[in-house]
Design a protein that fits this description.
380 residues, alpha/beta, Aspartate Aminotransferase, domain 1, Aspartate Aminotransferase, domain 2, 2 domains, three-stranded antiparallel β-sheet, 14 strands, 42% helix, iron-sulfur cluster binding, PyrdxlP-dep_Trfase_small, iron-sulfur, metal ion binding, PyrdxlP-dep_Trfase
């Protein structure tokens, strides 16, 4: 049985060219970039080159990029770092109810040490209201964190509009762009963001490496202490092989962006058409026009998400839900709960996400197997 992987929003396979680029830095070029001898200078050079490539990909300056271990560390560093460095101005933070847990749990941690956090609601498409954001601002507000594209339903937030609005208020703005990077055009100057988080393993790079963009002049406190790496903003010997792999993944991403956008939109349309033609009862979750093309979240009325996941796995189809499946129970997705409340859609939704290696035949198979399972479960 040929397995089909349509869970690229969880993690993506490492591109063969990325692995190839990394290999010499796992075997031959092992120097510490902080060492002044030849071994160190060799690795320092490739780290500097990668930083240039990555900075250019979002319209940033080289000194505005901090390498991290991934999206979670980038989110933590941005939010905790900005909160602690600016608490003399106020202790109020605004985020949304549909953020990744790397943001939500970080905000909950800050609440535990005396900060106040407002969690903005979303409408049924998963978007926040600029008006509600405006009404939530206080004199003590120091930071707003809103994700660019949702990892569960793909909905895009009005980041450019939020950035322009907050710039006038002199409030720091952070966006978690982990799912959006590589799928949409990102220019930090146009977006007016102070902080932006990215992870390599979502764009066919290696796990364990990411970056945080910190706009020049933005004050954050480092979370790690030790050496003076990353201009004293993130101590620890650099993950050179990971950084090299990240750069290669970014280069491939930039070369293939238009082609991938078109392909994933085609996959999305194809899957929806199969569901329509087979006349099963389904609804697409998320915004109808403002969405990431590689993410398709669908609720199948009359089904149970746990049964769907188990049956699809047995059929060789790897998908996911926004739910945390545990023995005998499924915790509902906080994103879908924020969108629909206590509704059947929350308990019957699957996320299909497309990426490297997927073919139209894969999408056809995944869609047809899903249809079979839905028909079987709803018949029961």
């Amino acid at each position: 049985m040929q397995a089909v992987y349509v869970d690229h929003a969880a993690t993506s396979p490492t591109h063969p060219k990325v692995a190839e680029a990394m290999l010499p830095f796992l075997t031959e070029h092992f120097g510490n970039p902080s060492s002044i001898h030849g071994f160190g200078r060799k690795t320092r050079h490739v780290v500097d080159e990668a930083r240039q490539t990555i900075a250019k990909s979002i319209g940033a300056a080289v000194n505005e990029i901090i390498f991290t271990s991934g999206g979670t560390e980038s989110d933590n560093t941005a939010i905790i770092g900005a909160a602690l460095a600016n608490q003399h101005k106020g202790k109020h933070i605004i985020t949304t109810a549909v953020e990744h847990h790397a943001v939500l749990h970080t905000c909950q941690f800050l609440e535990g040490i005396g900060f106040e956090v407002t969690y903005l609601p979303v409408d049924e498409t998963g978007q926040i209201s600029l008006q509600t954001l405006g009404k939530s601002l206080k004199d003590e507000t120091i930071l707003v964190s809103v994700m660019y594209g949702n990892n569960e339903v793909g909905t895009l937030q009005p980041i450019k509009e939020i950035g322009a609005f907050l710039k006038e208020k002199d409030i720091y703005f952070h966006t978690d762009a982990v799912q959006a990077y590589g799928m949409v055009e990102l220019d930090v100057k146009e977006l007016n963001v102070n902080l932006l988080s990215v992870s390599a393993h979502k764009i066919n790079g290696p796990k364990g490496i990411g970056f945080l963009y910190v706009k020049e002049g933005t004050k954050i406190l480092p979370l790690q202490h030790g050496g003076e790496q990353e201009r004293k903003r993130r101590a620890g010997t650099e993950n050179v092989a990971g950084i090299v792999g990240f750069e290669k993944a970014v280069q491939i991403m930039l070369e293939t962006k238009a082609e991938r956008q078109k392909k994933y939109q085609s996959f999305r349309n194809h899957m929806i058409n199969v569901f329509k033609n087979e006349q099963i009862n389904f609804r697409v979750n998320g915004h109808s026009t403002e969405y990431l093309p590689h993410i398709l979240n669908v609720s199948f009325s009359g089904t149970n998400v746990e049964s769907m996941l188990v049956n699809l796995d047995l059929a060789g189809i790897a998908v996911s839900s926004g739910s945390a499946c545990t023995a005998g129970s499924v915790d509902p997705s906080h994103v879908l709960m924020a969108m629909f409340g206590e509704s059947e859609r929350v308990y019957s939704s699957l996320r299909f996400s497309f990426g490297l290696g997927n073919t139209e035949e894969d999408i056809q198979k995944a869609a047809q197997e899903t249809v079979k399972i839905v028909k079987r479960l709803t018949k029961q």
